[in-house]
Amino acid sequence: MNDRTLASPSLTRDWLIKRFRDAPLTQRSMRGDHSLSAHPSPEAPLVPAAVLVPIVDRAQGLTILLTRRTDHLDNHAGQISFPGGRVEPGDRTPDDAALRETREEIGLASDRLEILGRLGRYLTRTGFSVTPLVGIVSPPVQFDPDPFEVAEIFEVPLDFVLNPSHHQRLRRRFEGREYEFYAIPWGDYFIWGATAGMLVNLCEFLSRP
């Protein structure tokens, strides 16, 4: 981690806990890859998946933990993502899937994590229905990234992510169609697509009166 990961102390752990406790799930922002483009939402059946949105409670301020996927993976190689993946048959709930994938990908111990709640499901254009589980990570913490899947773990200040002026809307042509998507560049990292969309959802939820 470097100095760019340091966040403002204006956001607090207690404020986040209260925000999730007081707001029903129906008020949690939800969008999918289709939300910004003139294309229909993905057709059922959608593949259930889950991710953990880890907020790290650093002494200098709250940060969002993200991973950069390795370049040799078949899907989303080299992209910025949250730890997570498909809901497997052995997972009782999407929450279980998010926590299992987090242990496998970055080695985060459950005793260093406090679950706050869920955001609304996120639908991807590739046919996944993603449940984002939000939790607070309490340092000191040791990460043990899976070298096959995770090239890098890094953190972005939460107050940077929650600033709408850092949210870009871009366009890209894919398989003959033009898609619009969110991007949140930070330093040398280009956060885009579903990961950026879920961060915008988090921003909208936390910004509500």
Specify the CATH class. Answer: Alpha Beta
- Can you summarize the main beta sheet? 8 strands, mixed
CATH superfamily: Nucleoside Triphosphate Pyrophosphohydrolase
Shape: globular
The second-level CATH architecture is Alpha-Beta Complex
What is the rounded Rg? 16 Å
Order of helices and strands: HEEEEHEEEEHEEEH
> Which topology does CATH recognise?
Nucleoside Triphosphate Pyrophosphohydrolase
Helix content percent band: 10-25%
Give the tally of structural domains. 1
Mean pLDDT: 86
Poorly predicted runs: 1-9
Secondary-structure content class: alpha+beta
The total strand number stands at 11
Q: Approximately how much beta-strand content do the residues carry?
A: 25-35%
Provide a count of the helices: 4
Note the gap between the termini: 33 Å
